[in-house]
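Blinded run. Sample ID left blank on purpose so nobody reads anything into the name before looking at the predicted structure. Input follows.
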Amino acid sequence: MTADRVVLYVLSLGLLLNLCLTLRLAAYAHRLANPSLEEPERLPELEIGQLQPGYRARLASGGRVTERSFAAKSVAYVFLSPNCGGCATTFPQLQRFHGPAHELGVEIVVVTDTGPKQTSSWLDEFRANGVTIETPVIQAHTRESDLVTTYNGPGLFPYYCFIDHHGRVQSRGVVGKDEWLDLIEWWAGRTGYPLPDAPALVPGTV
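Blinded prediction complete.
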């Protein structure tokens, strides 16, 4: 191999290494600029009948919120994301069911996986399209709260977790399927309470 070929080989190798380093730095910068794209740790779904875990988060309207904020009420936590196309259809539907569900003692609570800025922009889009926001909205980015990763272990959107007034998990799953549809029928006044009482997994919780 001549000296010229050696120099060319070294230069080519240097350029390749520099390109790889540049791409890695660009990917790192993109993740920093878009933290919502980071994959949170996936956990198992909550067990039916278990006491709901504690959490701390912030309301989009301001102020802190915990699981005790909805004590003595049944709560349907509905997990939506501004990055989920189907969630844009689910959100207005939840606003329409807020009143009927509230009369049955159920609080529908929307939970987003984004921080204040992105959540606020998302809500403003609904307001601009004539949607009146009735439900509480919790902003629970995974860097600030474990609400999403704990209650929505699979990381699916839209997803729900229904807690009864004893603070026990009654049902959970993908919105639009199975027991979620039964809840919708109940809130619409077409059926009675659709879920059997889940057995308490922890003695003395009832």
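Unblinding after everyone has recorded impressions. The first strand starts at residue 56 and ends at 59.
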